[in-house]
Amino acid sequence: MVQRIDVTGADGVRLAAWEFREADPAAGAQSAGPDPRPAVLLLHGLMGRAFHWAGTARWLGEHRRVIALDQRGHGQSDRPPAGHDVRTSLGREAFVADAEAVVEQLGLAPVTLIGHSMGALTAWQLAARRPDLVEAVVICDMRASALGEASQQEWEDWFHRWPVPFPTQDAARRWFGEDDPRVERPDPGRGAFFAEVMHEAPDGWRPLFSRRQMLTARETWVHDAHWEELAQVRCPTLVVRGLDGELGRAEAQEMVRVLPAGRYAEIPDAGHYLHYDQPAALRAALEPFLEGVRADASR
């Protein structure tokens, strides 16, 4: 079962958090009362949404309290208020403060943070700034190095090429998975990822987010390297990369070396959207790490 919980984030932005809970097989209803199990907060990447983690949340929920967050400007969370400085309201401080608010308002600490792409950056920045709140971190396919202006310009050009509105959701799936010039070979995981962030508008299927706001959010971190904050993460941290993802092996291994308690995992036959490409392999990589964290905590 999935329950929506509204949380107040930075600047008063209303955030939609989603708790994945198993129904009580005896009572046939959701169990009541606070969940005493160790907590996990799932943070999606840029343009993503909480329900991208649904498959991961199901197996995590067997032994843990699982919350997934629609980050500001994404999914069913609010966009920053009109009149605010967008570079501030869509900047790193705001995203990290939102995650901190979720952990504190829902009583999740000490929490394990599992983040994909931009969500992984949010995870390790929060762990660096509030080590008292975070028990462990999983970084899924996110680089610590600066990407630079050329990368940002490529994204802007790419956004302009989107043939929106799409006539159907399946048309969006095909374009992002097969027809997009950025796709070198068919990528069903990528197609599924983007199909799930489309909604039906009067003229067709459009993204849930503002592409302009996504560019602004990306601009606030793409020019900077994030090694210093990474080195400040003291808790156990697993760096996971898809073999064909955006995080190269050399950089991933350097991230592990920089982390005081870093570990490494690689998912074969997976790209950037590794939780879509190889969910079983991702689970096989995460489970031993998470079980080890809990074993250490219980000693």
What does this protein look like?
- It is a single chain.
- It contains twelve helices and twelve strands.
- It is α/β, with parallel strands linked by helices and 299 residues long.
- β3 (23-24) and β4 form a beta hairpin.
**DSSP E strands, number:** 12
SSE order, one letter for each helix or strand: EEEEEHEHHEHEHHHEEHHEHEHH
- Counting helices, strands and paired strands, the structural category is alpha/beta
State the helix count: 12
Radius of gyration: 18 Å
Q: Give the overall form.
A: globular
Poorly predicted ranges: 25-31
Q: What's the multimeric state?
A: single chain
Strand order of the largest sheet: 1-2-6-5-7-8-11-12
Which percent range describes the beta-strand content? 15-25%
Biggest sheet descriptor = 8 strands, mixed
Keywords:
299 residues; alpha/beta; two-stranded antiparallel ribbon; 12 helices; 40% helix; globular
Describe the structure concisely for a colleague.
With 299 residues, this protein is an alpha/beta fold. 40% of the residues lie in helices and 21% in strands. Helix 6 runs antiparallel to helix 7.
Helices and strands, with pairings:
Layout: E1 2-8, E2 14-20, E3 23-24, E4 29-30, E5 39-43, H1 54-60, E6 65-70, H2 86-89, H3 92-105, E7 111-116, H4 118-129, E8 134-140, H5 149-161, H6 169-179, H7 188-195, E9 198-201, E10 204-207, H8 211-222, H9 227-231, E11 237-242, H10 249-258, E12 262-267, H11 274-277, H12 279-298
Parallel strand pairs: 5-6, 5-7, 7-8, 8-11, 11-12
Antiparallel strand pairs: 1-2, 2-6, 3-4, 9-10
Helix pairs in contact: 3-4, 5-8, 6-7
